[in-house]
Structure formats: structure tokens, C-alpha cells
Specification:
The complex is a heterodimer of chains A (254) and B (369). By secondary structure, chain A is an alpha/beta fold. Chain A is 30% helix and 22% strand. Chain A has helices spanning 2-20, 57-61, 85-95, 112-115, 120-128, 145-150, 160-168, 171-174, 182-190, and strands at 32-42, 48-55, 75-82, 99-101, 107-111, 137-141, 197-203, 232-233, 246-253. The chains are: A alpha/beta (254), B mainly alpha (369).
Chain lengths: 254, 369
């Protein structure tokens, strides 16, 4: 009886230690690169130009005024051309020394041009991914998504992910927009009584880092047939008097 | 289990754990997929049906006093029928526990242990259930009764936390795909109450068999309340569940629960509690398998038998080649095998046994007079 118990205890210890504690199963913070924002642009060669904004933990922790200068102080933006979100992530993984982790992705930015072709399949992919949280915000950018990410400057925050979270939920103070998530969008997409809509973002040209990519897309170029494709902007462009570079002030309706 | 005497709550929770475990996994999806926006009405309807069925079962079991369906089968058709019914029950228990175990293990692997192999996760669960079974049936049942409190709480908290995010328009059209789909085809959703199978077996192990009806009604009502709660929350939360393109929706709902800016990603807490739920469920299944076999085959070495049972569960759990097969086993085979075994075969055995008993009773009375 006693030997049985000892045998069982030994078996439990051995199996648990081999299964859950081996080196392969453990992914430490040093081995992961945390994506804080994803940008989707149209590409001439491939289907998507995927921009991944990856946090640099050491840069984020050191508070300095330099973080005001550029987003690149606390993060780096990698852009690849690919057919799907995950093929893009695999592509970045192939040359990055760390594994990309999407658990802390706070915002998904789709350029207006890209969104006009339909984003339903990308939202479905994101909602079904175990790493991306359904509470990740969704923004339709009137400029290129990469340009939008590059010009998202944390002014009063050191950590970019925190900045995105606060920035997108600033509606609580202003009421100009609503903190919409990919889950809200996805639910509206399937609802029989609602249409999907997202936060409309743009760059304040007066404070933009450079002018490349800042040109706004011509609204007349938007065309399509299905539910997701008809973008119409509820409001017009704002005056641009804000001190910060990005402006999330309106909605884009699909 | 012969020495095992269960009290009122312990017995009721034995049935509730079955429903709750299925609830945490894919059952709400199947319920919602079948009846669409009429799922709430349908769940209430099948709860009433389950209550009615139980009241009939109780009536049919009454003449057999403290005996269960295995005894009724023996009374009706001798040892052959007893063995056939036992084998059928054993196959059902092994099949559902294996499929659920595989489903839960796959889920854990995807979410938390992507690098761990499947067999190690399966083994970990089965080992725990074996060890717990070595400690005795009474301990399993008591532990289950204690664990039920946090398990039931997590589900209530999940539903309450979702209230602000629910869209009430999603319950319309109120009759979903139509009257026929809701009340005729939707009646198959009674498989959600397949825990009634335990009620058919539990009677000899009750401290006071007069509590049998109370235990049955209480367990079905608790299960029904939780089913309605979760089905309503999910229906009003995720419109796409109706299309049947999603899994583990209860877990998904915990992923969007946030308590302010500081309490985010609370799904891990829920998962922690649900792992215990699953362990308890698996231990109870192994216990029941051992005890039914003991009753039917006069087994002496039950510890050795439980090792064999665990090994068979492991083998069956490894059988599905992919998650598509697994989903088919869970949503189709499990559904119809539950209906067949619990609500058709058992019911027929009980009715015929009851009629035979009545006939014999009348015969004796006739001879006496």
C-alpha cells in the first residue's frame, strides 16, 4: 500500500516536471518581443503591408524627455509585405531573434485605403487568435497605418501600450469618439440589426514628423459591394489645432 | 461505494458537476447553434422537460426501493440484461470522459501550454483522478461538494460581469428559427441534462433514500438555472455563436471581462477554478465506472481496475485525429448517445421493469387473496 503511494507520488512529480517545466515550454520575457500595435496598409506587390510596432522594454522603463521626440524611443516599427496576418508575423519571426507575442497588442490600425477593400477576414483572424485580446482597439486611419503608428507619440506617458490604451479611451473626457474594440466591430459585423463601425483616426499635419504618407486618401476612391466595404466618414477633418500628432475624433462607418 | 453514504447536497452536486463541466466546454454553443435566438426559451423548455422526465423516473424507481437501474435490469432480464446495460453505461462514461478530457486538454494546450505535448496533459489529469480514487469515494464526493461553491460562483460572476456588455436585441426573433425548431428539434437539447444518468445509479448510496426526489429536483433546477444564465449571457454577448463558428465561448467571455484598469486578464483565475472542476468531474466518472463494474461483475481488486479504466480513457482520448473529429464526437455523437442511453434505453428498461414488478405484485396479491 505504502509502495503504491510512493510510486504514484513519484510518477506525478516526474510527469508534471517533464511536461510543464521543461525549458521548451517556458517562454520568458527575454525570448519574446511584444507587439503593441498592428498596422495594415495596401501593398503594390503583396496583399498586405503589415506594420508591427514592437515595444523595447528597457526604453519604455526609462523615463526621459526623449520619448517625446519620436515613437521610436520606446518602440520599433517593422514592416513586411505578406498575404495574411500570420504569414507576416512568421516572416518577422524569421529574422527577429525573439518570438513575437501579440498578448499586449492594444490597437489595430487599418488604413482607409485598405479598409475600403473589406477587413472582415482580418478581424475574424484577430478575434480567433488566442494572443490578441478582444479588447484591442480598432482604428481606421485616414493616412497610411504605418505613418499613423510612426506619429503616435506618447507625450505624457513612457509606455507606448499604456499610451494607446489611454489615448483610445480618451472619449471618456471628450465624447468625440468611442473606445471601440475588435470585439465590438466583430459583433456588429454579425449582428442583424447593427453595422460595424470603428474609431476614425488621422494625423495632425502640423505636428507630423514628415509629410510622406500623410496625404489623405481621396474619399471618392472608396467603392465596394459588401457590408464591410462602404466606408463613409461621419464627420469631416478637424481643424488640426491639437498639440499631439494623432487625432481620434470621429467614427468610420461600414 | 457500498460503505459510501451520500447526503442530500453531496448527491445533488454530483449531478450538477456534470452539467457545469459541459457548460464550461462546448455545450452552450451546441444549444445556441440548434435554436438560435430562441435558445433562452429552449433552455427553459428542456429544463421543464427534464423535470417531467425525472418525476416519471422517480415514479418508475419507487417500487424498487433502494435499488438502482442496474438492479432493475437484472430484475427484468436476468444477468444478461444486467451485463448489457452495465457495458452500455461503461462505454458511455468512458466515451464522454475521454472526449471531454481531450477537448479540455487541447484547450489548455492552445491557451497555456503550447509547447507541452498532449499526452502529458492528459496523463496529468488522469493521474490526479486515480490518486483521488485511491483516497476513497467519500473524499471525492465531499471534495466535489466543497469545490462546487467556487465553481458555481465563477459562473455567476462571469454572467454578472458581462451585464454591461450585453445586447438585448440579440434575443430577437424570440422564436429563433421557428416554433418547430425550438420545441420539436430543440427538444434534443435535453441531452444537456444527461447528468440524470447519475440519478439512476445513485439511489443505493443515499443516506436517506427518501431524499431521492429532492436531490433530483434540486440538481435539475440548479443545472437549469446555470444553463439559462450562461446561454442568455452568451447569446446576448456573441452574435456569431449562432453560426456555430466558435468554441469555448464561456472562456472567451472571461477574456473580455475587466474590472477597471488594474484587474484585467482575469481569465486565468477562472481557468484555475475550472481545472479543479474538471478534475472533480473526471474523478467522479472513474469512481462511478469502478462502482458500477463492482456491482455488476463482483470485482475484488478495484484499484487495479481503476488503473485499467484510466488507461482506456487515455487511449480513447487520443483517438480523434484532429479537432474537427473531436468536435464531431462532442457535438453529434455525444449528444445522440446521451439521448439514446439516458432518455431512451434507460427509460425503456425502467418502464418494463416497473410493469414486471407491478405484474408480480398483482400476482402475489391475487395468490394471497
Amino acid at each position: 500500500m505504502r509502495s503504491h503511494k510512493i510510486l504514484i507520488i513519484c510518477l506525478v512529480i516526474v510527469i508534471l516536471s517533464f511536461s510543464f517545466s521543461n525549458y521548451r515550454a517556458v517562454s520568458t520575457i527575454d525570448e519574446s518581443a511584444y507587439v503593441i500595435a498592428i498596422g495594415f496598409d495596401t501593398s503594390q506587390h503583396g496583399k498586405i503591408k503589415l506594420s508591427l510596432q514592437i515595444a523595447i522594454p528597457s526604453a519604455g522603463s526609462s523615463s526621459s524627455s526623449s520619448s517625446n521626440d519620436s515613437q521610436s524611443a520606446s518602440s520599433v516599427i517593422n514592416t513586411v509585405e505578406c498575404n495574411t496576418l500570420f504569414s507576416g508575423i512568421n516572416l518577422v519571426n524569421s529574422y527577429l531573434s525573439k518570438k513575437l507575442n501579440l498578448s499586449y497588442c492594444k490597437v489595430a490600425v487599418f488604413s482607409e485605403d485598405f479598409a475600403s477593400n473589406g477587413i472582415g477576414e482580418y478581424i475574424s483572424t484577430m478575434i480567433n487568435d488566442v494572443e490578441i485580446r478582444p479588447t484591442c482597439h480598432i482604428i481606421i486611419s485616414r493616412c497610411k497605418a504605418k505613418y499613423y503608428l510612426e506619429n503616435s507619440k506618447p507625450m505624457l506617458a513612457d509606455i507606448s501600450s499604456k499610451y494607446y490604451e489611454i489615448e483610445d479611451s480618451s472619449e471618456k473626457n471628450t465624447g468625440f469618439t468611442k473606445a471601440l474594440t475588435i470585439l465590438d466591430f466583430y459583433n456588429s459585423y454579425y449582428d442583424s440589426f447593427a453595422q460595424p463601425y470603428a474609431i476614425l483616426g488621422s494625423i495632425n499635419e502640423a505636428n507630423a514628423d514628415d509629410t510622406e504618407g500623410s496625404q489623405f486618401f481621396n474619399e471618392s476612391s472608396i467603392h465596394s459591394n459588401d457590408k464591410l466595404d462602404n466606408i463613409s466618414f461621419v464627420d469631416s477633418k478637424s481643424s488640426g489645432s491639437s498639440e499631439k500628432s494623432i487625432e481620434n475624433l470621429r467614427f468610420s462607418c461600414f | 461505494m457500498n460503505n459510501l453514504k451520500l447526503n442530500y447536497l453531496e448527491s445533488a452536486f454530483l449531478v450538477v458537476i456534470v452539467t457545469i463541466t459541459h457548460l464550461i466546454l462546448n455545450m452552450p454553443n451546441t444549444l445556441i447553434e440548434t435554436t438560435g435566438s430562441a435558445s433562452i426559451i429552449n433552455t427553459i423548455y428542456v429544463t421543464v422537460l427534464a423535470l417531467l422526465l425525472f418525476s416519471i423516473i422517480k415514479k418508475l424507481l419507487d417500487p424498487f426501493e433502494n435499488n438502482n437501474i442496474i438492479y432493475v435490469a437484472e430484475f427484468l432480464g436476468g444477468k444478461i440484461l444486467k451485463i448489457i446495460i452495465t457495458v452500455l453505461y461503461l462505454a458511455h462514461f468512458i466515451f464522454i470522459s475521454a472526449i471531454l478530457l481531450r477537448n479540455f486538454a487541447e484547450f489548455l494546450k492552445i491557451i497555456y501550454f503550447p509547447q507541452a505535448s498532449l499526452w502529458t496533459i492528459l496523463s496529468a489529469f488522469l493521474l490526479v483522478s486515480l490518486i483521488v480514487n485511491r483516497l476513497g469515494g467519500k473524499n471525492i464526493v465531499k471534495a466535489n461538494a466543497i469545490l462546487m461553491i467556487p465553481i458555481l460562483l465563477t459562473i455567476v460572476i462571469t454572467a454578472i460581469s458581462l451585464i454591461g456588455k450585453l445586447e438585448f436585441n440579440r434575443v430577437f426573433p424570440i422564436l429563433g428559427y421557428g416554433f418547430k425548431e425550438t420545441f420539436f428539434n430543440g427538444a434534443t437539447n435535453i441531452y444537456a441534462f444527461s447528468g440524470i444518468l447519475y440519478l439512476l445509479l445513485i439511489k443505493p448510496y443515499l443516506k436517506n433514500s427518501k431524499n431521492f426526489s429532492k436531490i433530483g429536483y434540486l440538481s435539475i433546477i440548479i443545472s437549469g438555472i446555470y444553463l439559462v444564465l450562461i446561454v442568455s449571457a452568451l447569446l446576448m454577448m456573441f452574435p456569431y455563436i449562432q453560426l456555430g463558428n466558435d468554441t469555448l465561448s464561456v472562456y472567451l467571455s472571461t477574456r473580455i471581462i475587466e474590472y477597471g484598469k488594474f484587474m484585467q486578464r482575469t481569465d486565468a483565475i477562472y481557468m484555475f477554478v475550472w481545472i479543479f472542476d474538471f478534475l472533480s468531474y473526471l474523478s467522479i466518472i472513474v469512481l462511478f465506472i469502478t462502482q458500477i463494474s463492482k456491482q455488476s461483475f463482483n470485482l475484488k481488486k478495484t484499484p487495479l481496475y481503476s488503473y485499467i479504466v484510466a488507461f482506456i480513457i487515455f487511449i480513447v482520448a487520443m483517438l480523434p485525429n484532429n479537432t474537427t473529429e473531436l468536435e464531431f464526437f462532442e457535438t453529434t455523437i455525444y449528444k445522440y448517445s446521451s439521448i439514446g442511453i439516458v432518455f431512451v434505453v434507460s427509460f425503456i428498461v425502467l418502464v418494463l421493469g416497473y410493469l414486471k414488478k407491478k405484474k408480480e405484485g398483482n400476482k402475489i396479491r391475487y395468490e394471497v387473496t
